[in-house]
């Protein structure tokens, strides 16, 4: 089958000489040659895999410039992923030599010039992942081919170090952390040779990649490097995105690899081999309602006084000129919440109200009993006297979605719009039901868009593997590629080379509009004030409470009032 396909492509290549190709490309470091993929009689994509943008990094050091090469580098194979733990957390795979990127350049009859450029940063909790993504039958999730071809943009996907080697930090320059900047700098300096417009760069990413994008736009070091950014299901303000206590984490890792925690610690860590360091990351164990999974994600970017000079929430003046498109999936918390409360994801098991309360209690821990009472009153306000199992389970998922993704993303959107000068702001909610939901399928029928469900649509998988999807999924994928690439081209998701189903209004200081994205879109897909009651709960009501220890003394007299509070908040 594959042989036949290769033969068929070979015949096409001979028969259709009209589609253009870049051939050998000159970069600052040397010459590279990719591979041409013909897509039709006068349409092709040049693919470059595994171009180094920095030298093999020294352990726990910033990336260093690559020395360059003689001759022509054949860029036809993805580089290894950055070294990371295996799924079972019992071994490592990948390499320290992993600072490479991949480029997809579309052409019509003529070689492309001045195309918009989109640089992808993968997710994986800052612990795992690779620039090409998971691979199924040689179909890589993050292949930029569909986006490049349909949107007529250049797609770049870049590797970055993960886990201890990427994000262990002393919170200062001794072990700096935050290593994703070098790839953008390389693209800015070299993409013109590939037919890209260095003035029209958009960075985009999902989950930890979305948070990475958010950190990049907040950093003063990014000034002038790129114009636009897209964060899917992750921003710097997410509770899992910032390591607030780097010293504790670095000391834990030092202890596990047998390094002293005195002034020799840093040298000792840097002399430890990569696999040992990688295995010394805090293990991700099964969560529970009292100890949710998110609290175990400890290796993430830090405020280092340089790349991030301050808390992310204080840096929103920096991206004032950046166009920013941000959104979440309507059940982004499903995956994680059904780890923390396993019964939530099981059709045959009941979820107790007590478990939902315990999870919420863990999330509002600093606000003590009073915080929990207020938050629970808000989440159960529409329950009636005896909530159904569906209601209880959906509430658990809502709590996870709000706390981990939706509310932090909304906060970032409000702050960006408030500080923006020329930069525009666009907000979305993806609500397409999970492909795994329904009768006879693993998920409950009510499950919407789960974490990472957006990836397949943005990367055009319903077109690449049509049998796995229906016609409506191709519609949805086409819509997302249109909005995303139009945005990369013009800063407005509605304007560009592709038609969109509905005009997506800007999120402004005065009008908090967002687009509800699904396979069935019309003017009713334009909505406003996403989950305002819950955004208010997490960003105003809870922070206004004093913290738990102060509260202990006054808990008893507040308790009597919680009945009133329930009514007040039940709107
Ligand atoms: C970006 O691309 C658009 C469309 O091709 C073009 O109009 C614009 O001048 C380019 N440059 C900048 C800086 O926006
Ligand atoms: C701009 O962002 C800062 C945080 O960096 C925030 O404190 C401030 O309120 C924002 N400005 C406006 C006008 O809201
Ligand atoms: C918009 O789509 C929704 C959901 O598919 C449908 O119920 C509604 O009738 C449509 N409205 C219009 C104005 O077409």
Which tags fit this structure?
571 residues; Rossmann fold; globular; disordered N terminus; disordered C terminus
Could you walk me through the main structural features you see in this protein, from its secondary elements to its overall organization?
There is one protein chain. The protein has a domain at 2-319: Rossmann fold (3-Layer(aba) Sandwich). β3 and β4 form a beta hairpin. It has 19 helices and 18 strands. It has 571 residues and is α/β, with parallel strands linked by helices. It has an eleven-stranded mixed β-sheet with strand order 3-4-8-12-9-13-14-15-16-17-18, sandwiched between helices. α9 packs across α12, α11 (368-379) packs parallel to α19 and α12 (389-419) packs across α16 (532-544). The structure holds 2-acetamido-2-deoxy-beta-D-glucopyranose (3 copies). One 2-acetamido-2-deoxy-beta-D-glucopyranose binds at residues 520, 522-524.
């Amino acid at each position: 089958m594959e042989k036949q396909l290769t033969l068929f492509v070979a015949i096409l290549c001979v028969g259709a000489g009209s589609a253009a190709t870049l051939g050998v490309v000159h970069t600052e470091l040397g010459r590279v040659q990719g591979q041409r993929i013909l897509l039709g009689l006068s349409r092709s994509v040049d693919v470059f895999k595994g171009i180094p943008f920095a030298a093999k990094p020294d352990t726990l050091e910033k990336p260093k410039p690559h020395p360059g090469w003689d001759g022509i580098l054949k860029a036809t194979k993805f580089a290894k992923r950055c070294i990371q733990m295996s799924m079972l957390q019992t071994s490592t795979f990948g390499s320290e030599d992993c600072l490479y990127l991949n480029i997809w350049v579309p052409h019509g009859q003529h070689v492309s010039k001045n195309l918009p450029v989109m640089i992808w940063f993968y997710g994986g909790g800052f612990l795992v992942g690779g620039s090409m993504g998971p691979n199924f039958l040689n179909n890589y999730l993050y292949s930029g081919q569909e986006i490049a071809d349909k949107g007529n943009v250049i797609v770049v996907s870049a590797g970055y170090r993960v886990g201890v080697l990427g994000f262990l930090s002393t919170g200062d320059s001794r072990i700096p952390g935050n290593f994703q900047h070098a790839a953008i700098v390389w693209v800015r300096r070299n993409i013109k040779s590939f037919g890209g417009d260095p003035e029209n760069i958009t960075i985009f990413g999902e989950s930890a990649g979305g948070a990475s994008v958010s950190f990049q736009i907040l950093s003063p070091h990014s000034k002038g490097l790129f114009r636009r950014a897209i964060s899917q299901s992750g921003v710097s303000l997410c509770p899992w995105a910032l390591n607030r206590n780097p010293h504790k984490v670095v000391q834990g890792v030092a202890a596990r690899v047998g390094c002293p925690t005195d002034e020799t610690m840093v040298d000792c860590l840097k002399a430890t081999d990569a696999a040992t360091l990688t295995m010394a990351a805090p293990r991700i164990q099964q969560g529970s309602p009292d100890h949710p999974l998110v609290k175990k994600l400890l290796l993430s970017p830090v405020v280092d006084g340089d790349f991030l000079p301050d808390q992310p929430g204080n840096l929103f003046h920096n991206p004032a000129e950046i166009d920013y498109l941000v959104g979440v999936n309507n059940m982004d918390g499903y995956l994680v919440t059904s780890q923390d409360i396993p019964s939530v994801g099981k059709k045959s098991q009941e979820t107790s109200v007590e478990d939902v309360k315990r999870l919420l209690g863990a999330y509002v821990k600093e606000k003590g009993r009073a915080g929990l009472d207020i938050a629970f009153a808000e989440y159960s306000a529409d329950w009636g006297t005896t909530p159904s199992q569906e209601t209880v389970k959906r509430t658990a998922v809502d709590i996870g979605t709000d706390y981990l993704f939706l509310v932090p993303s909304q906060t970032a959107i409000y702050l960006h719009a408030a500080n923006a000068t020329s930069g525009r702001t666009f907000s979305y909610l993806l609500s397409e039901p999970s492909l795994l939901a329904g009768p006879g399928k693993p998920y409950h029928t009510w499950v919407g868009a789960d974490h990472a469900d957006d990836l397949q649509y943005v990367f055009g998988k319903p077109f690449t593997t049509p049998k796995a999807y229906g016609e409506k999924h191709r519609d949805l994928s086409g819509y997302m590629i249109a909005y995303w690439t139009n945005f990369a081209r013009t800063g407005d998701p509605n304007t560009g080379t592709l038609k969109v189903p509905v005009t997506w209004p800007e999120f402004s200081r005065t009008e908090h509009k967002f687009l509800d994205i699904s396979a069935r879109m019309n003017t009713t897909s334009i909505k406003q004030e996403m989950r305002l009651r819950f955004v208010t709960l997490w960003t105003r009501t809870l922070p206004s409470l004093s913290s738990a220890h102060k509260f202990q003394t006054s808990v008893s007299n507040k308790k009597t009032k919680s009945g009133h509070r329930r009514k007040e908040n039940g709107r």
